[in-house]
Amino acid sequence: MTKFSFLRCALLDLTVVSALILGGCAASNTEQQVATYEEEFNDPLENVNRKIFDFNQFVDRNAIVPVAKAYRAALPDPVRDSLRDFLNNLREPLVFVNDTLQGQFKRAGETMGRFVINSTIGIGGVVDVAGRWGVPYHEEDLGLTLGAWGVPEGPYLVVPILGPSTPRDLGGQVAEGFGDPWNNIVTGNPWTLYWIPFVRGGVSGIDTRSRYIETLADIERTSLDYYATIRSLYRQRRTALIRHEQEENLPPKAGFTRREDRGTPSTVARSAVGPGVVSEH
């Protein structure tokens, strides 16, 4: 009887120890999964980001999209295309600087050539003559330059109104605002025309939003988690731009874009919500 009691106690102790070990392993695995999630998506501010994302969605649905639809209805395609080409031409000096800073001297030469041709033959940029001659516009900004230099992007951010970003990209955007030669010319004007950069940014945003009303609506409708999809699209596109991938191979931009749509809205939406995009959650 004593031997049996001893054996029963020994088995009970072994069971308790095993349970503690397994419980510790389970807790460790859970912590490891959480750490892996945060590291993979680098979104430690997700709760706050989602609230700002919801706010941006409210503003987009109730203010930006209605204005974009009115803009698209009021102006014919050729006029909107000319306006987009003009706005792109204004960015060419910044694109040239970033091309040069990245050591992409061939692209820098093409950018300078585009600016000279479109500013003269293209009547100030309202006609993209260089694009028609086989030298298309390409995106470049200080955030991409910093990424090419190896500066970490930092945690994912959702900025009110502006949308998805990172500390690196947001810092680059702010710095470009101060370094933009056109902004400096306007704000240095004795007439104090400080409102012009804001009008330029607003028109650019409305113009580009008008081109992607159906595309983004399709992506939202077919996404399991629209927030996660936008987060993935943003990071994929920024990474692809840093690698200087061909324009037609870039993922769709998560939000406003200067790029001309390469397919129908439904096609772009299906590619955007394919494997590896909405599988975050």
Overall number of strands: 2
Q: What is the total number of structural domains? A: 2
Unreliable residue runs: 1-39, 256-281
User: For the report, how would you describe the main beta sheet?
Assistant: 2 strands, antiparallel
Q: Percentage of helical residues? A: 55-70%
Average per-residue pLDDT, rounded, comes to 79
Radius of gyration: 25 Å
Helix/strand structural class: mainly alpha
Brief rundown of the structure:
By secondary structure, the protein is an all-alpha fold.
Write the layout of secondary structure elements.
Blueprint: H1 2-41, H2 46-74, H3 77-101, H4 105-120, H5 129-132, H6 142-148, E1 157-159, E2 163-165, H7 167-179, H8 181-187, H9 195-210, H10 213-222, H11 226-242, H12 265-272
Antiparallel strand pairs: 1-2
